[in-house]
Structures are given as C-alpha cells and as structure tokens.
Design brief:
mainly beta; lipopolysaccharide transport protein A fold; 26-stranded antiparallel barrel; 44 strands; elongated
C-alpha cells in the first residue's frame, strides 16, 4: 500500500510518453498485455485487466484512468494492491500519484503483523493477521489511513468471532488504531460501546495501549470493574497503570514498573492505593460487621543492579499500611495471611578476596490488628576475608567482622518498648583440613570471637545503657566417613544402566570456652544465644541413591533419586540445645534437655516430573514428634502440573510450646494446573485447609474449640481461540474460623467472601490481573 502511488507515478509517465499498446511500462514488469487509449490531451485510459509489478508491489485493476494535469489516477473494477504481507481490495481507488495520497471505496484489507509464536496464554497474545474494511479507506500519510464507517478484527475466519465497528478508525501501520464511537461485537452480538478505543497494531507483543477490562463480584466489595493502561516504554522497560472500582467499598488505583537493563540488572515495583468507604457486611449467621472508612496502600518490589564489576546493589519492599485491607482484598492466600512488612537495601562488593556488605533492613511483624514487633539493622555492615593459606602451611586463615545497629521495638497500642542497641563482632578463624583418605574427610578449625554490645540485659526483655562484651574460643572438628559406596549394573530396564548407593556417617565435635557474661547478653538474634563452657556432639548418617539414566536430559550423568538423612546433637549444657539453629522448633521456650530433637529429612526425585520431600523433628525427651511436614509435585509432560503440601505442629502433653491445642498449626494445601491443546484450554484449582483446632469466643462469654476448615478455594478456567478468549475465576474465602484471618471474625460463625471474576481477550490486546491478584495473579505481558 505504501508504494501504491509509485505505480501511479509510472502510469503517469506512460501517459506523457504516449506508449503503444502491449509495450512494457517503464520500471515495471507487466504480466499481461493491456490496451492503452488516449482520450484527451491530459487523459489516458488503460483497459484489459491491468497488471503491473514493481519489486514487492503489485497492482491489479480492470481499468486505470490517468489525468496527468491533476497528477491523478483512478483505478476501477477488481482493484487489488499487494505489498509485502499486506493486501487491500476495493471497487475503486482515486489517488494523487505524486503525493501518494488517495482513497479506496468499498474496500477491505489484510495485514500480517508477525509470525505465529507458539501457544497462547490465559492473558491473550498478539495474533499474526488483521482484517479491516470500510466504505472509504483514505491514505492520509506514509503509513497512516482513515477508515470511515468500517471496522476491523484480528479474527481471520469465514465468520469472525469478534469485530469492532466504528464511525471513524485511524490506523497507523505498525503502531496503533484509534476508533471513535466504537462497538465491540462478539458473534454479531453487541457487547459494549466505547466512545474511544485504542488498539495496538505493532509487530511485537508489547504495545502501548489500554487493556481489556475485567469484571467481578464479591460479598464484601460488591460489583467490581478494573481497567489498565499498558505503557511499552522500550524493549527493556514497561509500566502498567490500573484502576479498580468497587460498588460497595470504594475504589483503588496503582501500577507496576519493570525493567531489565542487562543480565543481572533488573527490577520491578508495584504500588496499590485503596480508598475504602465505611462498609457493612453480614455473615451467614446474620451478624453484621462494619469496616471503617480508611485509606491504605501496598508497596511490593525488588531489584538487583550491577553498579560496577564486583559491586551489586539489591533492594526489596513488601509493605502495607493496613493489615485489615491486606487480608480482605488480596486474592493470593499468602498475601492475605502475611503479617510481616519488610523493606531493605543492600550493596555488596568483592575485591581481592574480600567481600563487603552494607545492608539497611527493617521488618515489622503484627500480632492482631495493631500490636507488633519491629526488628532490623540500620545499618548492618560486614566484611569477610576468604580463606587463604597461612604462611605456606597446610592451614587456612579467614576473617569476618560485622557492625550493626540493631532495631528492636515492641509496639502495644500507643506504648513503645525499645531494646535496640549497637553490636560489633570480630571472628578470625584458622582451618586445618585432612583429606588424604578418599573415604574419610576431617575438617577442623579454631576461632576466636569478640563481641561488643552497647547495652545489656537488666531483666527479661529489658535493656539498660550499660555496655557488655563477650569473648570466647571455639574448637570444631567435622568428620565425614568412613563413606561406603556400592555400584552395580542393572538389567536393561529402559531407565538406568547403573545404580550407586552411598552411606555417609558424620560426627562433629564442638567445644566453646566459658562466656561469663551470658546472662547479660541481649539475645536479639540467633548469634547472641551462645552458651559458654559447653561441649557439643552432632552425629547422623546420610543415605543417597544415584542412578545413571539412559534417556532424558540427564542421560549419561548420575542423578540423585533418593536422599535420606537423620541426625541429632548433644550438649553438655542443656541451654545450648534450646538454641540450636539447625532445629526449626528451637527458640520456642521448650523445657531444657541436653539432646536436640532427632531431625529426619528425605527427598525422592526419580524423574524430572516427580519430586517429594519430608521433614520431621522427634523429641526424645517426650517420645513424640514436634513437627512434621511433607511436600510433593507431579507433572505429566507440559500439560499437567500438581503439587500438595502438609505441615503440622503436633500436640505434645507436657511440652511447653506444644501443649496448647489452640496455638498449634496444622495445614494442608494443594494445586493442580492443566493446559490442553497448546494452552487453548486451561484450568487451575488451589485450596488451603486448616486442620487445627482454634478457640472461638461465644456470645454467652464461654468459648469452644473449632476446626478451621477451608481457608480458601480457588478455581480459574480459561479458553483461547485463534483470535479471542475468556477467563473466569471463582473463589471462596473463609474468615473468622482460624487464627490466620481476624479482620471479619465472628463469635457465632465464620464469614465467607465469595468472589467471581471474568475477563475476555482479543488478539493483540491482553487482559490483566487487578491490583489485588484476581485471575491468577499474573500481570499483562
């Protein structure tokens, strides 16, 4: 189309040169003879199925009339212009062959924007072709056209599934289409009217423009409408600006920014603001709860930026101003149940064996709606020297130091308890390795530690402005082995040609000199809970089974398919066992005992499609498991992925921290994702179930234990045709029946928020997830 008037220019040259019938057109190759008739001084008529070609441009018409005094050409009868992958057909075309501007009447056209790229997604993709039509198609620029009383679609089928009609359409090829007074029709049924509609027609999948809106309903929020504007800043940056309107509870707006500067330098940031008006909601038992009018916001983001060789900056923010809004509006269960808000920044530099880190971090954990504890380091600066041989000996020397201004605050209503302090830590280490025997490895090291605290304990969780220091020597020896291996060949079973079983016992010995100031040391972090004058023994065994597959990505290399480990520690001072950082249930106020729980871990992964892990901690003093957890995934090709998880903090009579059934946790969760026919059909189901008992207050002042039940269930389904599709989501949130959600708790029963969301996609325009993660929580791409 862009060279259409080039053809006309050459036809004008034909008129002035008075060519004879059957002669070749200058600069063109004609594939068919046609008749040339001079009617007047400035008027020449070509008839007889005119066909002309110039490189990638072809012109077809029954008749072409040339008016050389007006630089005008008129083509009539089966007019077709083909240029590259674009084509336009019309009853008549009238244009100026010098300015290359003109008009096509009763015209239709097609253009291929890109080659088809693999399967689509539930949020829509750019399809390869566009079809447009109109009573008039006027060329008003080099690649710009105005369509009058027409429309377009990217659904190139005998009967398009959808089309957009408009009184006026402006198309800028490889950029955009703007429609005024547009009407979207699906299967010829009018869906909605838009006074103005911006549609990208770029060659790539990232084009600036408004995304298709999403709709939803919620027990709390009422009817919801969401829309967004996507800004493709350049190939490495984009942004989304979003707006949400809730019929019952107010409105929200926000956005997301993403960038990728280079490998290892990228980031994203998401902001959401909620203006909630006073809202009254009623549960299934008829109880009403009034949510007060409030304004709140959320900020989430992360970044990694390479500043210079060896210098990297990192940042993270997960912050919310209202835990109630966090629980009520977020769709993702982990965002809704999050009680911790965090923001931090870090700069690390590596030079000549030294690693220096500067960190500023702050974390606040909520208990209920207002009470919280604040921790962090403002700042935290550390330096470490990697191991190097010590004066040519077989010994290795390393060094580490840290300075931190620790933040420790407890906020209860308007009361603030501040236990923050400054800590300086220095620890040089000398390591002595022994690796001469292939079946036995011994690593020993000795370190000296000196730690200064600007404040000390006065009593439980109270510090005073009296400095205190801690100094001690520590000796460690880690023995791995003797290692037993067995390798054997297997019959031709189609899976593995060799198996290897490895048994690795280990035994670690640790001795620490006395810490005379232990009772004065503020135990704000795990590194502070160091008991002196203690000997510790850690022992256990690791079992690993390897296979060498014959097929698949790991063919010819060993793959670990089973791993089972069991271990325990003993300390001469029982206080250290309560502070063992290798045990998840430590620091829980349990009774003192010289032995830590036995820790059992197992992992099974026979193929890339199957994976399962399990961890358990068994208390030998009370003869019972403290905690048990298991997780697993199973996939069938690329079309089905499933996962499940289970965790339990068990009830143990007499064991402090595990003997209150109202404070124990017991959860089950699962997810399944199925994608069929190159992702044209898809469905996702997730659930989170609370199996624990929780104490619930009743109206008569008494209480009873109730099981939590489902925290949430979520079902998402989508369908993508060649050029359009839709996605639906149904979710049920249960508030008030467990300790996870407290915003809508009720003394007489649980409150359910039922949510339904719907969106549809058109080729070239994606849909999106709203500010609070509806429809799977994805963002437009």
């Amino acid at each position: 189309m862009t060279r259409l008037l080039t053809v006309a220019t050459c036809i004008g040259l034909l008129a002035s040169a008075r060519l004879a019938a059957g002669q070749q057109l200058p600069g063109f190759q004609t594939s068919k003879q046609f008749k040339i008739e001079r009617i007047g001084k400035d008027y020449v008529k070509l008839t007889g199925s005119v066909e002309a070609e110039d490189r990638d441009l072809k012109l077809f018409a029954d008749t072409v009339e040339i008016y050389s005094d007006k630089d005008r050409a008129v083509a009539t009868g089966n007019v077709v212009v083909v240029e590259g992958t674009s084509q336009i057909a019309a009853d008549r075309a009238d244009f100026n062959y010098k300015t290359r501007l003109g008009t096509f009447y009763h015209a239709t056209g097609t253009a291929q924007l890109q080659q088809k790229k693999g399967p689509g997604s539930m949020f829509g993709t750019q399809e390869p072709d566009i079809y447009f039509y109109g009573d008039e198609i006027e060329k008003v620029g080099l690649k710009k056209y105005r369509i009058t009383r027409g429309g377009f679609t990217t659904c190139l089928q005998p009967t398009p599934r959808w089309e957009v009609t408009s009184s006026t359409v402006i198309i800028s090829l490889e950029h955009y289409a703007v429609l005024r007074n547009s009407l979207l029709r699906v299967k010829s049924v009018p869906v909605f009217y838009l006074p103005i509609f911006y549609y990208p027609v770029k060659k790539d999948d990232r084009a600036t423009g408004f995304l298709l809106p999403t709709y939803g309903t919620s027990t709390v929020q009422g009817f919801r409408f969401s829309d967004a504007f996507f800004w493709a800043i350049n190939r490495s940056q984009d942004a989304v600006f979003e707006y949400d309107w809730f019929k019952n509870s107010g409105q929200g707006f926000g956005g997301e920014y993403r960038y990728i500067e280079a490998p290892g330098s990228q980031g994203n940031a998401r902001f959401a603001f909620l203006d909630q008006r006073e809202t009254t909601v009623t549960n299934s038992a008829g109880d009403s709860t009034t949510l007060p009018a409030t304004r709140s916001y959320e900020i989430h983001g992360s970044m990694v930026q390479s500043i210079a060789p060896g210098i990297i900056a990192r940042g993270r923010a997960d912050y919310f101003s209202s835990i109630q809004a966090q629980q009520i509006y977020n769709t993702n269960i982990y965002d809704s149940s999050r009680r911790q808000r965090v923001y931090s920044g870090n700069v690390s530099a590596a030079r000549s064996g030294w690693v220096i880190n500067g960190t500023w971090d702050r974390s606040e954990y909520f208990f209920g709606q207002t009470n919280s504890s604040v921790t962090g380091g403002e700042p935290r600066i550390s330096a470490s020297r990697s191991e190097r041989p010590l004066f040519g000996t077989p010994f290795y020397f390393s060094f580490g130091t840290e300075f931190v201004s620790l933040v420790r605050q407890n906020l209860t209503g308007d009361s603030v308890s501040d236990n923050g302090l400054t800590r300086l830590d220095v620890m040089p280490t000398v390591r002595i390795p022994f690796t001469k025997l292939p079946f036995l490895t011994v690593n020993s090291w000795v370190s000296w530690r000196d730690t200064y605290y600007s404040r000390s304990w006065e009593g439980a969780w109270n510090t005073i402005d009296v400095p205190v220091s801690r100094r001690y020597w520590e000796f460690n020896s880690q023995v791995t082995g003797p290692v037993f291996n067995r390798v054997w060949n297997t019959p031709d079973n189609g899976y593995s040609e060799k198996w290897k079983h490895t048994i690795q016992p280990y035994f670690n010995v640790q001795y620490r000199t006395a810490v005379d100031t232990f009772d004065q040391i503020p135990q704000l972090e795990g590194t502070d809970a160091v008991v002196g004058n203690v000997t510790g023994l850690s022992y256990g065994i690791n079992n690993r089974l390897y296979a060498k597959p014959k097929q698949g990505p790991a063919a010819g290399s060993s793959r670990e398919i089973v791993s089972v480990a069991i271990g325990q520690s003993y300390y001469t001072d029982a206080r250290q066992a309560a502070y063992d950082r290798q045990v998840a249930s430590s620091f829980n106020g349990v009774p003192l005992w010289h032995y830590t729980p036995i820790v059992l871990t197992a992992r099974v992964s026979p193929t890339d499609q199957v994976n399962a892990t399990m961890r358990a901690e068994y208390d030998t003093q009370f003869g019972a498991f403290r905690t048990i957890s298991a997780n697993g995934t199973y996939a069938v090709g690329n079309w089905l992925q499933t996962s499940a998880g289970w965790s339990q903090q068990r009830y143990v009579p007499g064991l402090r921290g595990f003997n209150d059934p109202t404070r124990l946790t017991h959860y089950l969760n699962g997810a399944a994702v199925a994608r069929l026919l190159d992702n044209r059909y898809g469905v996702t189901y997730t659930f989170n179930y609370d199996l624990a008992k929780h104490e619930v207050a009743l109206e008569d002042g008494t209480s009873e234990l109730r099981r939590g039940g489902f925290l949430q269930q979520r079902l998402v389904g989508y369908y993508n045709a060649q050029c359009c599709g839709f996605a639906v989501e149904y979710q049920v949130y249960n508030y008030g029946q467990s300790g996870v959600f407290a915003s809508l708790a009720s003394p007489t029963g649980k409150f359910q928020d039922r949510r339904f969301n719907f969106s549809f996609t058109l080729a070239g325009i994606g849909t999106f997830s709203n500010l609070f993660g509806a429809l799977g929580g994805g963002q437009p791409r």
